[in-house]
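Most newcomers find our protein records easier to grasp once they have seen one. The structure tokens are whole numbers drawn from a learned vocabulary of backbone shapes. The record below serves as our worked example for the rest of this section.
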Amino acid sequence: MDGCSARRNCSPAEPATPDRVAVTADLLPRGEVSPYLVEIMEIGDERQRVLG
């Protein structure tokens, strides 16, 4: 995912704070983003969040 851009809708896993948002991801075996979120990212990893 480094250097890539992908847009996905998601639901919060808990209420957001000004500096943190938590989401839950379901693994879609042929997905572009979910394998990264489920298999590679770890709790505490940071990603840029763009609203729009």
About this structure: Helices lie at 34-40. The two ends are 20 Å apart (CA to CA).
